Amino acid sequence: MPADTSITAPASIPVPPGRSALTEPTWVRALLIGGALLFLALFLLLPLVAVFAEALRRGFGAYWLALTEPDAVAAIELTLIVAAISVPANLLFGVAASWCVAKFDFRGKNLLITLIDLPFSVSPVISGLIYVLLFGMNGLFGSYLRDMGVQIIFAVPGLVLATIFVTFPFVARELIPLMQEQGSDEEEAALVLGASGWQTFWRVTIPNIKWGLLYGVLLCNARAMGEFGAVSVVSGHIRGETNTMPLHVEILYNEYNFVAAFAVASLLAMLALVTLVVKTALEWRFGDELAASRH
Amino acid sequence: MAIQVSGITKRFNDFTALDSVDLEVKSGELLALLGPSGSGKTTLLRIMAGLESPDGGSLLLNGEEALGLKPRDRQVGFVFQHYALFRHMTVFDNVAFGLKVRPRGERPGSAEIKRRVTELLELVQLSPFAGRYPAQLSGGQRQRVALARALAIEPKVLLLDEPFGALDAKVRKELRRWLRKLHDDIHITSVFVTHDQEEALELADRVVVMNQGRIEQIGTPAEVYDHPASAFVYEFLGQVNRFDCTVEGGIAHVGGGALAIPTQGGVQGPAVAYVRPHDLGVTPASAGPARISGIHVVGPDARIDIDLAGLSLEAEMDRERLATLGIAAGDRCAIHIDRARVFAR
């Protein structure tokens, strides 16, 4: 079909020379961009800078001391342990759940999707309370667990459970739309070509979702380490034992130990920055493949 | 390998996709499943491949019951409508996939795999593209990769779902000829699904016309085009004029006696007549019963809209013939029809 090049702007709409009809005047653009930048600086950049400034107020020595005192080290270790358990668990659950939702049709599918979102819509404090009500001393399984000699609440298992609950949606939410969009054509092709279900999963499904999966895991990890509300309820705040980093920050802050509080907080802030940098680096380095997997 | 389908039925909730279908695919032939969307053709193809299981009936591959077999055990090659190429693999790896996933004992060595893939890529004329990803290929190239991938496992049957559906008209024609030639060379039993009657008639050895989960007619392209078994087949295969008539003593009367057409088949009383546009003759006649309401020239052909006592008809002829007749829109004319197929109303 020959392209019709005869369409021109009607004479009645004046377009000033040198400016496209879709571009706003300079002052409007300056105002919009400036406003957005100011907002970002005020609400995102400034607090971040403040965290590091407060942490280093008494110099690097005090900063280092605050991070290496035993309770801080215990909090850091505990945070890492909780993340090391809950992130892989959610990786597994997330992949399984999105596989179910995206590749199969079954009764109650919408209910499942709603349930996956539940942790996002419920206040984290409630999430913590649920576990106290279930496993606490006076909870549903409390007496049974006490008889068995198992402690969940005010111990590491409770922290892990609460963290898993709160961070559950990250991987699944990232994968479900991706897998739904990709459909099951490639899996079917693999099956007809003679692959087993296992081969199909590892050679076709996983490579197609790997970037989405990595995204989900990054976000999940950031939240797992940074979670406060749910963890606070089940932790019991025992120093050196059940305090994760966010809880430790709160305790220090309440004790007016600002340098130590901000020092630990700066670690969390750095975690956030690293997450962002890795995410951006992934996008930059593998942008083409990311786009292709969403193609 | 011959395929024997008998009594295959498939329902999706309360929609009947296939209603007791019987079909035999002969060894080495190229068969088209032709029908409108929702006619069940793709479902039938997917059942043959094992991607869908029927509610009843039996499927014999080479004389052996195959419904209990998984897709991987059926030795079929399947080409998907949207190709379903593995997007994260190169063209080479896509084609090699079926060989690489074989159990250890049956898997060819990597040198052998390389040789076979290279050979297949030559066959589909894609050797220079071995290192590319599917996203970097055109639609026609992707289609050929999908074909090479399906052929790599040396299937006994090749099943193609709307193989040219997503291509533009020119590429579609080229690829059609190329596929026909490929089939003539390797003679693999092939079944393809299409909703495009031209494609089915040009490409296939035999055409199966499907409608609403049933087979309307099976025959060679010439048979189904020249002798449609039902009104549906007549309407589905190509352009057709359809009008009501009354048949008395083998003569169909149209438009209150304006036209009389000889018929065969012994239909009596009210009926529907079908006439292909190129079977409808037009001659200029100043006192003729019909009027030419429009002439549209499309490439080498001309389409002529005719008004016969309130009935809209369409005739088709080449432009030279149109020029010889010297007719123009608004002229009166006479119509003669040598052949009409009538079905009782």
Jot down its keywords:
heterodimer, A: 295 residues, mainly alpha, MetI-like fold, globular, B: 345 residues, alpha+beta, Rossmann fold, 2 domains, six-stranded mixed sheet, five-stranded antiparallel sheet, 9 helices, 26% helix
* Number of E strands of chain B: 20
N-end to C-end Cα span of chain A: 28 Å
N-to-C span of chain B = 42 Å
Mean pLDDT over all positions of chain A: 85
Could you state the order of secondary-structure elements of chain B as H and E? EEEHEEEHHHEHEHEEHHEEEEEEEEHEE
Fourth-level CATH superfamily of chain A: MetI-like
Can you identify the CATH class of chain A?
Answer: Mainly Alpha
> Counting H and I runs of at least 4 residues, what is the number of helices of chain B?
9
Oligomer description: heterodimer
Q: Which two chains touch over the largest interface?
A: A-B, 20 and 26 residues
Number of strands of chain A: 0
Strand content of chain B: 35-45%
The named CATH superfamily of the largest domain in chain B: P-loop containing nucleotide triphosphate hydrolases
Helix content of chain A: over 70%
> Order of SSEs of chain A, N→C?
HHHHHHHHHHHHH
Q: What's the architecture of chain A, going by CATH? A: Orthogonal Bundle
Q: Give the number of domains of chain B.
A: 2
Provide mean pLDDT of chain B, rounded. Answer: 89
Largest sheet of chain A, in brief, is: none
